[in-house]
Amino acid sequence: MDVAVFSTRSYDREFLDLANVAAGGLHDLRYFEAxxxxxxxxLAAGAGAICAFVNDRLDRGVLAALHEHGTRLLALRxxxxxxxxxxxxxxxxxxxxxxxxxxxxxxxxxxxxLILSLNRKLHRADVRVREGNFALDGxxxxxxGNRTVGIVGTGRIGAVVARILRGFGCxxxxxxxxxxxxxxxxxxDYVEFPELMKQSDIVTIHCPLTPQTHHLxxxxxxxxxxxxxxxxxxxxxxxVDTRAVIAGxxxxxxxxxxxxxxxxxxxxxxxxxxxxxxxxxxxxxxxxFPNVLVTGHQGFFTREALTAIAETTxxxxxxxxxxxxxxxxxxTELLA
Length: 336
Known about the structure:
By secondary structure, this protein is an alpha/beta fold. The chain has 12 helices and 13 strands. The chain has helices at about 10-20, 60-70, 85-90, 105-120, 120-130, 155-165, 180-185, 195-200, 220, 240-250, 280-285, 305-325; strands at about 1-5, 30, 50, 75, 95, 150, 170-175, 190, 200-205, 230-235, 255-260, 290-295, 330. Strands 8-7-6-9-10-11-12 form a 7-stranded parallel beta sheet, sandwiched between helices. It has a 6-stranded mixed beta sheet with strand order 2-1-3-4-5-13, with helices on both faces. α10 links the parallel β10 (about 230-235) and β11. The longest helix is centred in the last third of the chain and has 21 residues, at about 305-325. The two termini are about 30 Å apart.
């Protein structure tokens, strides 16, 4: 199958090529570094399948253009699909497939790395030592043991975070519409969202982005959070209202902030902007706080995760070519 792959970097090519060869080299993969948008959609002409990433634009206009170019399958290299107009895809007869699970351990471990780095001020300590400053003033942390951690969303990733933090001796609270009984047996207490915010020393977000979770963390919810609590988001950027979080940092309501995602990351992440001036004033303001640590959507970036993403993506394309339905095909039923 002829596949146009957008938003590609060298590592995407490496792992997708390996997966394609392992599957018998069935597909002709055409790589484009550019993201998919109305301006670049013409590059997909003749491609029966499109392979897209989290910041590609897949609204009705782009999907209509893809349909005109003959595209029948949209294969996402991600679990999230909030950037896809599923109703438009269904109306146009374009099948949509995703990678529902690749390596929850990768993102869970990155989450804990953010917690540990912020707590022990490792990002600040590294800069100091490189400048010959070995003073410890301002680097005081706390023991994680017996601290209360609130986990918002206990799907695959949230569940792994819970198991890791249990090993530190943390008290674990969780909020999720569908409680995990295995986690309950592990000692996780499910509570309502306001109670989790009030009791937690650390709040970590692992829910999908839906209309219900958009700006779940906003000014109102931050009024509930324990004074000086740490907030971590490795889920989707728009779950957090960035301006409200900045206000929380300024007031001291938020004691530390760790982000691997950002609601306007499409114009920033997955590219080298070191020689340009940041045009996003909100993001630039975030970077001025010493108690903020931001990584550029790096949580998934392990060899194991990239292998799984590539293999599942190729499997989706192959199964669609053979049977007309992708292995992990999704539709508008997920919007309910």
